[in-house]
Amino acid sequence: MQETNKKVSFTIRVNAQTKKKADQVAESLGISLTAAINMFVEQFAREKGMPFTPTANLHEHTYSEAELELMFVDLLKQRVKNAIDQPGLPGADLTARYVQHRTERD
Fold first, then answer.
1. What is the reported pLDDT for 68?
2. Which domain covers residue 33, as residue numbers?
3. Which range is most confident: 33-42, 44-53, 88-97?
4. Number of domains in the chain
5. The dihedral sign for the CA sequence 65, 66, 69, 75
6. Does 51 have pLDDT greater than 80?
7. 82 & 104 share domain
8. Alpha-carbon span 29 to 8, nearest angstrom
9. Are residues 52 and 89 in the same domain?
10. What domain of life does the native source organism fall in (predicted)?
């Protein structure tokens, strides 16, 4: 039996100022930021793509090397977890990619 209503959680990293602005916008709309993100994810999955047209302002924030490293590590952790949860996926390949990334960066 497939659990279509089962809720899961995931973590995202975002600039503190961006989150504060997003909280304010959501509040002005009478919804929580969680509800707004859920709406985005639902529409993203339903439309199989972005539910809006990205603009040139997309790269307004420049990420520091430390922020990028944290995002990369989080991504790898999630992919390794998925590989563990789904036998047959190449978890060792992910480790090799991370080591290569660190070697190229240093």
1. 77
2. 1-58
3. 33-42
4. 2
5. negative
6. no
7. yes
8. 25
9. no
10. Bacteria
Helix, strand, coil tally for the chain in percent (to 5): 65, 0, 35
* 89 plus 39 within the same structural domain: no
Q: Encode 28-37: b = buried (16+ Cβ within 10 Å), e = exposed.
A: eeeeeeeeee
pTM over 0.70? The answer is no
Q: Do the beta carbons of residue 40 and residue 51 sit within 8 Å? A: yes
CA dihedral 63, 16, 41, 94 (to 10 degrees): 40
62-81 pLDDT, tens digit per residue, is: 777 777 788 778 777 777 77
Higher pLDDT pick, 68 / 19: 19
88 touches 77 (CB < 8 A):
no
Looking at the structure, tell me whether residues 40 and 70 fall in a common domain: no
80 and 29 co-located in one domain: no
Please name the residue ranges forming H helices in 48-105. 65-85, 91-105
Spatial separation of the C-alpha atoms in residues 87 and 11, rounded to whole Å: 23
Long-range contact list for 36-45, CB < 8 A, 24+ apart? 37/12
